[in-house]
Amino acid sequence: MTVIVSCSRTLSKQLPFRSGVLTRLISTNSTSRVARPQTECTTSQQNGGRSHVFTQPYGSLRGYATTNKPAGRPKAHTGRTPAKRTTKTTTTTANRKPKAKPKAKPKKKAAKPKPKVRKAKKPPSASALKRDAREKRKEVKAKALLDQEPKQLPEQAWQLYVSQRSTKGQQATSAIKSISDGYKNLRPEEREALNHAANENAGKNQAAYKRWVQTFTPVQIKDANTARALLLRSAKADKVKHLARYRSIKDDRSVKRPRNAYSWFLGDRINTGDYKGMTNGEAFKLIGREWSQLPADQKKSYEAKAIADFNRYSAEHKTVYGIDPPQTKRNASAAS
To answer: Domain coordinates of the chain in residue numbers?
Structure first.
């Protein structure tokens, strides 16, 4: 079969011809060739152009994609030894090693519960401290019975005369001056009437005060006196002028505290009159020196008085307050 392929003059010049026939080198490798029908190519003149006729077999032609690349050169030896291939050995039940049993894990000890750490409390603020102090002071005042005492009538002639003459509209300085001038110019009969009325007021005050005290139990009066002592101490620390309102309540039912041996000795020495014209500090200093130098046989009489007074106090305390008296060190030493 002859195939006529038309091509241009430039292409015909580039194609290799041998004796008027297009030839091409064919590879000697038989594997790269594919059996194809034989074709011939010849040159002829057609349509005023130039044609080439291929007489070479068509099967000898092959493209670039189907051409096997020539084998490369062997790599030069690098001096490394080739890695050995490891062959897997099949294990059978005969040569299989028995698996070791896993060791039992040691039991963990029970963790001891951690002690709870208490958070430190924050210190109270200044406002909280002031609020607590105010509340505590209110409680102490309530126990002291300060606002429940009956009002006292004037017990002196001057006080009674001022209460009768004073008015709200007058100024203080002018009122006092006029009242004092009028009190100086009183007649004797008027003074006698004022003194009589003042004495009656004193009797009324005493009766009203006693009735008021009887409305409370002896234990309440004792607690009130304890509260008043606390208020008096704080008032002195704050330099308060009017301290008369904090005086203790007089109750005939209250138990008189016992006296120790030195107190009995002090009373006897003061009653002798040897310390007239001296201050209390000077007199107490000398009496204390005498007590320290007093022989033991002379102290026994005063110690006996102290023991008898303590027994009296214990019995009265149990009867009036319903409880035993607190055993202080001084009372214990006096009882021994």
So the answer is: 127-246, 261-329
The whole-angstrom separation of Cα 214 and Cα 206 is 12
- What is the pTM for the complete model shown? 0.52
pLDDT at 326 over 90: no
Long-range own/partner contacts, residues 222-229 (CB < 8 A, 24 or more apart): 222/254, 222/321, 223/143, 224/143, 224/144, 224/145, 224/249, 225/249, 225/254, 226/143, 227/140, 227/141, 227/143, 227/144, 228/144, 228/146
For residue 265, name the pLDDT band (cuts at 50, 70, 90).
very high
298 DSSP β-pair partners:
none
pLDDT at 72 over 60: no
- How far are the Cα atoms of 67, 92, 182 from residue 60, in angstroms, in the given order? 12, 58, 166
The two most distant CA atoms of the chain are separated, in Å, by: 188
CB-based contacts of 320: which residues, under 8 Å, 6+ apart?
A: 218, 253, 254, 255
